[in-house]
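Renewal narrative, Specific Aim 1. Our central claim is that a sequence can be written position by position from structural information alone. The example that follows is taken directly from our test logs and has not been curated for this report. It begins with the structure tokens describing the chain, in the order in which they were read.
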């Protein structure tokens, strides 16, 4: 029988106050729900047909099947890896998260802030 996981976006245990992190302070002051950040990250990081085409083109260049193009080499495809509920819970609790996860959280928060017509923030503002 498979286990069923339910993500809780808050302190480690409900009813117990965790140390507030800069991220959780920022989200609460700007009235942003953490679930909204996770959904925004899913939309931002989702791979598109253009990303898959770019990866295929770069591979063809590496194999020597296509001529090298500097403009294509400088482009980066999306990762296809959004912020997960577990990573968001860790970040809200003030635990350590990796650098790429921090960057994805900042991108998602900035996407939500632009919807609210507020100025964008940097990584230093959240972590």
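The sequence written for that structure reads:
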């Amino acid at each position: 029988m498979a286990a069923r996981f339910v993500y809780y976006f808050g302190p480690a245990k409900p009813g117990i106050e965790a140390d507030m992190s800069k991220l959780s302070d920022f989200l609460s002051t700007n009235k942003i729900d953490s679930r909204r950040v996770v959904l925004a990250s899913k939309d931002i990081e989702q791979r598109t047909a253009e990303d898959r085409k770019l990866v295929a083109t770069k591979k063809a260049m590496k194999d020597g099947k296509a001529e090298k193009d500097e403009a294509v080499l400088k482009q980066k495809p999306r990762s296809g890896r959004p912020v997960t509920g577990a990573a968001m819970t860790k970040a809200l609790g003030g635990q350590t998260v990796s650098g790429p996860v921090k960057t994805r959280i900042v991108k998602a928060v900035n996407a939500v802030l632009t919807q609210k017509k507020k100025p964008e923030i940097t990584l230093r503002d959240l972590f």
